Amino acid sequence: MTSYRVGVGLSGGTDSALAAKLLLEAGHDVIGFTMQLLPDGDATVAKGAAVAARLGIPHRALDMSDRFEELVLAPFADAYRRGLTPSPCVCCNARMKFGAMLDAMLDAGCERMATGHYARLIPAGDDTLLLRGRDPRKDQSYFLAMLNAGQRRRAIFPLGEILKNEVQTQATALGLVAPDEGESQDLCFLPDGDFAAFVAARYPDLSREGWIVTADGKRLGRHSGAYQYTRGQRRGLGLGGGPWFVLRVDVAENLVVVGRQDEILSRQVILRDVNWLLPAPAPDTELAVKAQLRYLMQAQPATLRRLDDNRAEMTFAEPVSAVTPGQLAAAYSNDRVIAGGWIC
Questions:
Q1: pLDDT of 66-94, one tens digit each?
Q2: Nearest in space to 115 (alpha carbons), one of 97, 94, 134
Q3: What gap in Å lies between CA 151 and CA 146, rounded to an integer?
């Protein structure tokens, strides 16, 4: 096996800690890197440094707060301003972890980059195939569907073949993390999960009362800001005569349009900024795939058709619920990710 100088993104959690340990055991020269993403992120850096010390590897802290603001936080808030429901973890992977942090690792002399993601990579000639992780309950390939060929070629995912419970057992036995250390948060910048307050602090004009209406304009109730709602949402509407589901959000008019469950079903999805993880097919070429529109969605049979250099059309065999603009769609051929794109 070829040995590399590998930069490992250390969050201080179990997954990245064991990933680093496995790389050391495989004979790689390992350096730990921890991104400070927020101005008050010293605790995260300290956790990463503590893991590196236990492993006996060098550690570097990267102040990436300005880049995180530019590449993740500002687009996140702006998406809600435009009536979209963003996927910040997908953006963070492509732009921060395998973008800004990878660049810093390469500048430090690293040849490869590793993380604790549950996904697999297989070299295939000049390309590197991205596959689902072996653990179906933890597979994170969906979040990596926007990685380009260069990013995949540099990446290593040591946990791709391992089950989560095995990772937890090994890391605990080795004493790699503090006993009370929990999982890394998906939305690391929103510890309380209150995205509405985060967006309102940046765009206070969005927090104004408006109407919840049916598709034909019947007024059913009031809301405190249309940006807080997302297509398919059922809870928190406060309406009688339900169940009601959000059909669409009109931030410009400050309207939330609701309807019945059958009205949020659809078969066709248009994707933009499509990332092909295979040679891009000719326009109008149809590929049989299984696709998911959310991380926890069970992948469903669909046809993927390239429309042009930027867009593709996904047609499901059966109607699916809550096709949500701003979210990521990922297409698979068996376990292999073959395309990712943003839902229009």
A1: 999 999 999 999 999 999 999 999 999 99
A2: 97
A3: 10
* Three-state secondary structure call for residue 328: strand
Q: What residues are labeled active site?
A: 92, 188
d(CA 46, CA 230): 36
Shared-domain flag, residues 284 and 138: no
Is a pLDDT exceeding 90 seen at residue 216?
A: yes
Asked if residue 81 lies in contact with residue 65, where contact means CB atoms within 8 angstroms, the answer is no
- DSSP letter for 325, please: T
Within 13 A of 265's CA, how many CA atoms are on the CB side? Answer: 8
**pLDDT 10s digits, 296-331:** 999 999 999 999 999 999 999 999 999 999 999 999
Task: Let me know whether 143 and 291 are in one domain.
Answer: no
DSSP-derived 3-state class of residue 297? coil
CA 163 to CA 176: how far, in whole Å?
Answer: 17
One domain, residues 35 and 170: yes
Give the Cα separation of 17 and 178 in Å (integer).
11
Residue that has been written with the tokens 């590929």 in this structure: 287
Q: Which two tokens stand for residue 109?
A: 């002399």
Same domain, 152 and 44: yes
Task: Give the separation between CA 223 and CA 220, rounded to whole angstroms.
Answer: 10
Burial (CB count within 10 angstroms: exposed 0-12, middle 13-18, buried 19+), residue 303: middle
Please tell me the total number of residues recorded for the chain in this structure. Answer: 344
Number of domains in the chain: 3
Give the β-pairing of 210-214 and 155-156: unpaired
- Sign, Cα dihedral of 194, 145, 118, 112: negative
Integer CA distances (angstroms), 319 to 51, 243, 259, 265, 286, in order:
47, 19, 16, 6, 18
pLDDT digits (tens, 9 = 90+) for 230-276: 999 999 999 999 899 999 999 999 999 999 999 999 999 999 999 99
Residue with tokens 């991380």: 295
